[in-house]
Task: structure prediction
Amino acid sequence: MSSKPRVWLTRKLSDNTQARALRDYDVILNTEDTLSSSEDIVRMSGEVDAIIPCHSELFDAATVAKLDSRLKIVANHSVGVDHCDLPALKAKGVCVTNTPDVLSDATAEIAMLLLLGAARRAAEGDAMVRSGQWDSWSPAFMVGTQVTGKRLGIIGMGRVGQVMARRARGFDMEVHYHSRNQLDAGVEQGATYHSSLQSLLGVSDFLSLHCPATESTTGIIDEVALSQLPDGAILINTARGALVNEAALLSAIESGKLAAAGLDCFETEPGGNNKFNQHANIFMLPHIGSATFETRDAMGFRALDNLDAFFAGKTPRDRLV
Ligand code: DGY
Result:
């Protein structure tokens, strides 16, 4: 029997992450990369000391209540932890960590891609050329919304929001934000703080979501919020599907209130919302904000750093509870 802690990697992680995990721990891999049910999680909690899950594994109150006492740490391979009931895990004495910082650049890249793609109709154009349906050109053809010089509203000026602001400045966008607290001037870099969401919405030609999904942010973009945006605004979501009321978003697209939307996150994942499919001005990606080779390694290593610290008797750098 191995003296190393036993660790379950719930999904297929990067080759480098799996190699390091196999070197340092007694590892159970998910070579088929299948999704795990609550029953799987409960069963595995009796067989391992640690789990490295992704945001696809749900540690809700009902699951946590049944976890075996062998499980000591849930070292998430994600920055978002809305899939974890943190108070329940804390009450159960399970340490929980996440992987902040390392995915900010990659996620902001996808936010910028969605912003540009939604504004300039990238998916429509690609589909037209690819399908052989590009048979004319005129000045009125495939006209979109210009990005340069427009106002970008950011909800949640944390790590990803700040990188997004930097990228947007490269397009001469005027950055505005709403966050729990105003940032220091050095971090703000000239961005305008709005203490109220309504005030931010009123100036946001583009609105990009970068806050976590919590009780207070769930459904933050609803019918009322969308009505407060300027006509022809564009919504970008690389954070979590739960932030947006999708029925309200659909109405805003159908009425023309929103010119377009760029979405990497949906209420239902995987899958998305098939009501969006008929709207070419909704540019969609399958939750790939952090999906770069570099970032997957960095996320895996950060999760393993947290495990290493925990099993060395230290406080993991990214301990949440
Ligand atoms: C995160 O880390 O929260 C990303 O959404 C990928 O899981």
About this structure: The first strand starts at residue 6 and ends at 9. The pocket of (2R)-2,3-dihydroxypropanoic acid is lined by residues 54-55, 78-80, 103, 289-290 (CB under 6 Å). The longest helix spans residues 293-311.
